[in-house]
Amino acid sequence: MPVPERLDPPRLNIIGAGLAGCEAAWQGASLGVRVGLFEMKPDRMTPAHRQEYFAELVCSNSFRAASLENAVGLLKEEMQLLDSLVMRCAMAARVPAGGALAVDRDAFSMMITRMIREHPLIFTHSKEIFRMDELSEDVPLIIATGPLTADALSHDIADRLGSEQLHFFDAAAPVLYADSIDMSTAFRASRYGKGGDDYINCPMDREQYLAFYQELIKAEAVEFRGFEHASVFEGCMPVESMAVRGVDTLRFGPMKPVGLQDPKTGKEPHAVVQLRQDDHAATLYNIVGFQTHLLKREQQRVFRMIPGLQKAEFARYGAMHRNTYIQSPGRLDASYRLMEPYARGKTIYFAGQLTGVEGYVESTASGLAAGIHAALGMLGGSIEFMPHTAIGALARYISDSSIRDFQPMNINYGIIQPMHPSDPRARKAKKDRKMQTAENSLNTIRDIRDKLVHYKKYNSSE
């Protein structure tokens, strides 16, 4: 791979220091590019953010499944092979969560912030950017302002891309103080015994569940403001919205009892509410799958009906906020670069949930890819994330112009292509097909890593 003559490092600007923006900055700087990272916090906060740190986790503290049998586990493994900053810090800030990767959210964000600010090629600026052309027009730009992009920049993006910007609402689950949980009623266990006793489980019998269900479906929620029609991404649907679909919907969703046994009865409960550790010290626990838009007083009243939570104290109430994403197919290519005529001759990339990827890991992966593509383009090189990799499959999804009804997407094995049309995986059992997909993908990512090392070695030498 050719390397350009060594000159002063080129400059890349990034707007937004969330997961995607920080990852893009790290990848660009690792390749020897100077990065200007612009973040409006702490001078201006969004309705969902509370901390001044970068990469703040405002919803769950979970990065989801860790096993390669789940596509998000494969995506995390790909990112770790490519020296993902977010994955490195997530592993360092890990808390017990069974078969999932969950983190102490404060320790995680503080670590990201420290490593970004200490990198010699990353220059951080506490400044809100109102227009895409506000920064130097001669410098490539990555927009990673996330699902809560401030109104001024959001309107500027809409003016450039057309009126097809889409909105949906996202919800966060409550966080409780551990010492307020009644452990004489609740018990510790992980589903099917995976991961030890990582979860606190609050069991319900049929009568308790029906009473809880009836109060939940009639509880008062916060009114939507600013939008005539509010839509909610399926993967973050509020628990009260799930409940109205049917009396047993929660029992087959976040309250499913399968794989758990109440030590007091020796039997599987009728329903279970699980609590997951939210910090290293195990002083905070979040209610798994209980994203909500209920009024605070209603959260207290209804959620304290859960056995073991009668005296629960809330460290943070559940909340709902606006998420924004663009109509990426036909506007972004598979490198997350803005296409003509929308780019107007400029080099602009998007990353994170703005692109229509959904989830912490997916957002980070898009930032990783955008950062690498932008940096290599400035250095005279290029790589391709093939669609048989998880990173490449996400990029292909958001750039597939054949998609008519574009909706946010989590990574899944269904969108990861076989390496070849006649791939023998089609004749294998489902689990074996997934493992073969993972093996092929990781081998390709290792090849990409080796190519990137060529640049990193050159640009890090004196």
Residue stretches low in confidence (pLDDT < 50, at least 5 long) are 1-7, 225-230
CATH class of the largest domain: Alpha Beta
From the coordinates shown, what is the CATH architecture of the largest domain?
3-Layer(bba) Sandwich
Q: How many DSSP helices?
A: 11
Query: Which of globular, elongated, flat, extended, rod-shaped describes the shape?
Result: globular
Number of β-strand runs: 16
Q: How many separate domains?
A: 2
CA radius of gyration is: 23 Å
Tell me about the largest β-sheet. 6 strands, antiparallel
What is the subunit organization of this protein?
single chain
Give the % helix: 25-40%
First CA to last CA: what distance? 20 Å
Q: If you average the pLDDT, what whole number results?
A: 87
Q: Output the strand order for the largest sheet.
A: 10-11-12-13-9-14
Portion of residues in beta strands equals 15-25%
* Series of secondary-structure elements, N-terminal to C-terminal: EHEEHHEEHEEHEEEEHHEEHEEEHHH
CATH evolutionary superfamily of the largest domain: FAD/NAD(P)-binding domain
Helix/strand-derived class?
Answer: alpha/beta
